[in-house]
Design a protein that fits this description.
46% of the residues lie in helices and 16% in strands. By secondary structure, it is α/β, with parallel strands linked by helices.
Length: 418
């Protein structure tokens, strides 16, 4: 099976090569991306018996940071290496000064083998849903223990892997243990044919990820009459309904400050063009003089800088988190604003955050909307009813507090399966 898979993927790479070369010739950004992906771990020092942690993007990198911090506090002596898949995940890992960071290369032995030679991993930790066939098969071949931590299997993934169950079991054969975030995820894994003795439920590390950045802006003094609403991690299709709701709210409550934070910074220009269509006064966060952003009641801030969203969540009275009205996106992290006592609104398609959504809804700290058109009324009701809003905020924060502890259980499993 391994040989057939490598022949198939190698052939696909060869077929795609002319198109990749053409794109590289016409796009400097694509050239840079390919360069980073093929470089692998060459820039790292030669390591022995390292602990390799792989995180896909920003959310997984935040989990990785918490996990690495606790591992080191618990006495982990192996050199720790962190790989990421996306450029935004890599940028955050560098910004957070995490150890030995590199971009995961293309999932093929030609590029993976030099990584193994450079860092000599004694264990691989995969965060959440990062399953790469060649990477996993190479670990099995080299007898390197592999753990999936904070594992999740969405309904969509269950259906996709269910059609290719033999491939899934072949791919994951070398995983020593699946440490899943919820019983639902564990049951789906068992349904795919993974033996029950290889599955554990340890909880969701995202509850242990304390939001950072609040120190930067939390001390800012607001005009007592102003009211901050954050529309965070918005995805394509979110900003239109957000702007419609914001325009209506501004007529009802002139003192509100709105913040729109696209999930991907490269979309800021697109979002900026949409805001202009609504003829609304706005300002880019990067253009605001330091410390002056609190003096813009009634205006809209477009957050065009990574790493400061949680600072706004820390000051928000209400938060809407995007990605939930399109099943393709499956929601975004709703725990970040919840940790700051903010009631959280989100859409109905939370397949990547099922457990988080259920817990916040059950506690009263989260409000799930069935349609985009409901956003304005839901926000207006909470603006008008301060008692209800504050109660929901307290419930959201308490939900986060009650479900912490998964990171310690995960560290114990990592130590037991070295």
């Amino acid at each position: 099976m391994d040989f057939l898979y490598y022949i198939l993927t190698g052939s696909m790479i060869l077929v795609a090569s002319p198109f990749l070369i053409l794109r590289a010739l016409t796009s400097s950004a694509f050239r840079y991306e390919i360069k980073e992906k093929t470089k692998g771990a060459k820039a790292l020092p030669s390591l022995k018996e390292s602990l390799w942690v792989h995180a896909s993007s920003v959310g997984e990198v935040r989990i990785a940071k918490t996990l690495i911090t606790v591992l080191q506090e618990q006495g982990e002596t192996r050199p720790i290496v962190l790989s990421t898949f996306t450029p935004t995940g890599y940028a955050l890992a560098i910004e957070e000064n995490l150890p030995h960071v590199f971009r995961l290369p293309l999932d093929f032995p030609l590029w993976l083998n030099p990584v193994f030679d450079q860092i000599s991993p004694s264990q691989l930790i995969l965060i959440e849903a990062e399953l790469w066939p060649s990477l996993l098969r190479q670990c099995r071949k080299r007898k390197i223990p592999v753990l999936q931590v904070n594992g999740r299997v969405s309904e969509k993934s269950l259906q996709r892997y269910g059609k290719l169950k033999s491939f899934f079991l072949w791919m994951t054969e070398g995983i020593t243990l699946f440490s899943m975030r919820s019983r639902t995820d564990a049951d789906r894994l068992f349904e795919l044919g993974v033996p029950e003795e290889k599955i554990r439920v340890t909880g969701n590390i995202k509850f242990d990820v304390l939001p950072k950045g609040s120190e930067e802006l939390k001390s800012a003094v607001f005009d007592p009459s102003s009211f901050l609403i954050v529309f965070g991690s918005t995805r394509p299709g979110d900003e239109g309904p957000v702007m419609e709701a914001y325009v209506k709210l501004k007529k009802d409550f002139p003192n509100i400050i709105g913040v729109i934070a696209p999930r991907h910074m490269q979309r800021c220009r697109e979002v900026e063009d949409l805001i202009r269509e609504f003829d609304v006064e706005y300002i880019l966060f990067s253009n605001i003089p330091e410390g002056d952003w609190v003096n813009h009641p009634g205006s809209l801030i477009l957050l065009d800088k990574l790493g400061v969203l949680n600072s706004f969540y820390a000051n928000a009275k209400l938060a809407y988190v995007g990605g939930g009205f399109n099943p393709r996106f499956g929601g975004q992290n709703i725990l970040e604003p919840a940790a700051f006592d903010a009631p959280v609104l989100f859409g109905k398609h939370m397949n990547n955050f099922e457990e988080e959504a259920r817990l916040l809804i059950d506690s009263g700290g989260g409000i799930q909307l069935q349609k985009e058109e409901e956003l304005y009324q839901a926000l207006k009701q909470l603006l008008l009813n301060s008692e209800k809003r504050q109660k929901a905020g307290r419930a959201a924060a308490e939900t986060v507090r009650q479900h912490r502890g998964a990171v310690l259980r995960t560290v114990k499993i990592i130590e037991q399966n070295r």
